[in-house]
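anyone seen this seq b4? input:
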Amino acid sequence: MSKPLKQIHLAAHFPGVNSTTVWSDPASGSQIDFDSFVHFARTAERAKFDFLFLAEGLRLREQGGEIYDLDVVGRPDTFTVLAALAAVTEHLGLTGTINSTFNEPYEVARQFASLDHLSGGRAAWNVVTSWDAFTGENFRRGGFLPREERYERAREFLDTAHELFDSWDGGEILADPVSGEFLRDAGPGAFAHRGEQFDISGHFNVPRSPQGRPVIFQAGDSDEGREFAAASADAIFGRYGTLDEGRAFYADVKGRLSRYGRTHDELKILPAATFVLGDTDAEARELAHEVRRLQVSGATAIKYLEHVWNRDLSGYDPDGPLPDVDPEPGENTIALGRASVRMNRDPVAVAREWRERAAAGGLSIRELVIETTARQSFVGSPLTVAQAIDALVQADAADGFILVPHLTPGGLDAFADTVVPLLQERGVFRREYDGPTLRDHLGLAAPRALAPVRG
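predicted toks r here
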């Protein structure tokens, strides 16, 4: 008996602060104007996507002590944008990234519960952590949290938020979890949490939302991040779009679910993916090459190299050879507020590897950066791209993909008009939404185990 076809999940990432968008293209629009968000969201909904995803930036990136202006700067408040989009869409899920390090559970739970009510059950929370003092300088407790403790706070933050979401399920007498004393005026919305990170009690003022709880996403790829997702998340953003890497990640994360009493289908794995479409595969490859050159200008290539070298390299020719000096040791003070290879790898070893690669291929600085930062996951005709997406999902390398177009806001249009119909013809993607909530779109049941009202 043949294995039934898996249904593909598709979502769209509205690009904000990033180096993917080709801002120089005449078709590229604003990342701030509401019309851009509306166009993007309505295209995703027209294509029957599961949700729209907004990343979060709590501080503008800097490089060499100045605002990094080679990719877009500025990001409106996530909740404000998603609440506004709830009014101009009917089915599309609305996912926002909110940091668990620099916020408080009551405030975040109240905002997401409100969004879930306003949208009729379409809210989702991407739970992220932060440890760097650069971001923390915008907050009262800036830089206070050691990196190794960030997931401890995140776990208790999410547990506390769940207690708040679930507090309207009962009307029983609520007891203090430490003293055992009964709290006055206990009833729907009453809560008391005493923990290492949070010590709060009171009444939650938003009734149970349509989904019970917002859908929970997690983005970390570390072992702690994978474990956090297996224990608490409904979906995880994967980094791996190739068959072998994707299957390994998929098997690892799904394999952790049983230790928390969860089944294989209770966590969706959704890697981010870019795409370039053409009428033919050859045309798409040619366009993809041009897109990469537009994404990595000469100035961008030099700035990217500075992430590794931790030096001012502005005097180097981006069309010339790599610097013959080694990276500066120590903490990265050149690039702040963005991920860097220096966080995970030995920069001297990276420089040595890149010199060897450049020498072997006769690559300039810009050509090397283009080659080492390739972002295009799917390149080809609509049929080729549809086949590639379907093959990865059916092979358990992913449950679907979060698409990141290189144009804002119209970069999703061609995919919606050409690739989606082909996936529908293959019987692996919906033609209509199955229900009103994001949990319906993702095939997730209502929260299985609600936090009990203590008494």
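The first strand starts at residue 9 and ends at 14. Confidence is low (pLDDT under 50) at residues 340-344, 449-455. kinda curious what u guys think
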